[in-house]
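Quick one: structure tokens for this chain, please?
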Amino acid sequence: MKLCIAEKPSVARDIAKVLGATASKQGYMEGNGYCVTWTFGHLCTLKEPHDYGPQFKSWNLFSLPIIPSSFGIKLIPNKGVENQFKVIERLVEECDEVINCGDAGQEGELIQRWVLQKAKCNKPVQRLWISSLTEDAIKEGFSSLKPAEDYKNLYLAGNARAIGDWLLGINATRLFTKKFGGNKAVLSIGRVQTPTLAMLVQRQKEIDAFTTEEYWELKTKYRDVVFNAAIDRLKTLERAEKGLEYLKVNPFEIVSFEIKEGKEKNPRLFDLTGLQVEANKKYGYSAENTLNYVQSLYEKKHVTYPRVDTTYLSDSLYPKIEGILRKMYPYQELIAPLLEAPIPKSKAVFDDTKVTDHHAIIPTEVPPSQNLSREEKLIYDLIAKRFIAVFYPECKISNTLVEGKVGTIPFKTSGRQILEPGWRAVYAKEPKEESTDKEKEKEEEQTIPEFVAGETGPHDPMIHQGKTTPPKPYTEATLLRAMETAGKQVEDEELREMLKNNGIGRPSTRANIIETLFKRKYIEKKRKNLIATQTGIQLIDTIEDELLKSPELTGEWESKLRRIEKGEYEANLFKEELIQMVTELTDKVVYGKGKVITLQDEEKEEVKEKKKREPAQKKELQSWEETKCPKCKEHNLIKGKTAVGCSDFKNCGFKITFEIFGKKISDKQLLDLVLKGKTSKLKGFSAHPEGLTEGVLSLPDDFQVQLG
């Protein structure tokens, strides 16, 4: 018997269907010589300090650093996890061969290897490596299984990452909490989290220290075209007025007139960071939400594997492109022009040297279904249009540059015109993005007539008054880009691609890092902007060690982890370097000066104390009788003895019971499910068919409650 282990029950079902393992058992599927089981993501984790000795249970400065002689793993303490592991352990014992069907990435490799290690697996192991969950991709993957040994370096890199994060996170968090936390709260330090916070704090300080200054610029209008004086900004109105008087008594003369035709390159295909950036700019989605939406699209077979950091496709995909385009039915109007000739094979799209484990995110041949959520439809639309746009011709533009002078003062203006839209035609019907520099955009869009060098004439000079503006706060979009390039401001796509190896964090973990900073109250969101709180600023100010907060140095660690993945660096050497760093850091902090950091909640408490205390009023829940049925959207709901249902139940058929998968659900949780389409994360489910004990209840388009 061959045992397949997937990372999620839903993925296991897809694989089992293709393999013909259709008999459903407790915790696995069986049939056709296969058993297909699953994990729930991580079943195992690295042991905690107290697992290495009771002396590490309490936090003590002088027991640091904690450095185990060898790192062990343990099951995550959870009844559902323990039950599922017993199933896997038994099946590993009974099978002849294991097929690792975990997510095809570093994290997926680590999850599966730890489980097999814990189950004491000594059977031969094969690896399924696929980029989408379509039936064809699964069949193709099973026809070309690879030995697990081929992915050993991927596991070593994942394991080194986990150990590195443990060494730094556990030791530095205990160290700073005991030294500076004043016994009030945990001060969380992390290998990626802390330099990310440091970038936000640095930007916050630049904004706070910024002093706005007024300036004046000279402009003039000649033949209905606005020209700007090509001189430094003037610091006083007096100088500007003198300049204006000078302009009034001299004619305008054209010095040169030049039109250059150019091309605007097609946008790149999406990697995960690029998709998160675009979704944040366009729809305000957080990085974590975008990851969840695209992961759902992947599991529904509509897009390829999303946790990727390349914007290229492998050459072997080229023959499949036309077939994918033909299946994208909602976009046929845009696709039709592409199918009139062979699909172009550009090095900017297809390049094996730029693809490692996976290629860029693209649609699959499975067209989007009607039961997608609004957010999933919008994310699919971003991926689909980008996929179409890369095969369109380049956009042809003309840049006009005109130079003039009034007396001795030089002037210039420029204009830009699209000659052939090319790939921009894909986005023609979309609303135009708001420009941050409206003045500049207005001038670029002005129509420039034909000028002749040497022509002169009257003009209409003016003074423009402006104010200097502070640096812009980070948004999730700009922070993700900064993490990708270790804090360097990079607009050029080619250069950004080169810097990715030294970015901080991985595409799949960056969203989680940002969420952690929110949870720890080190940052907060104001509209789209991310603002460092006083706690976050104080924490970074307290850390004197540059290694902990430098994006460049953290980027170097990231580079070493990637080299471990390629077999170019020793995992043990990486561990030894971090042990040395943690040991030196501990000595420096333990024997250094102490101070107490004010926590965000304390600040808020002080503000509350100043306000007059009033008894808190309990917020009343909306009644069922005033809540519309989410299915028919016509009648209100009514509450019965065992369920809430539509008052027109005979025709509509909508109802939700008070007990779901063995757990009693409160009115508040039920209301969330009806009004928001999902609950918060809940625990205590005891009767789920797949053994799930915790998760979020959701109400999809078929109105059958799901737990995921």
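The chain is about 40% helix and 20% strand.
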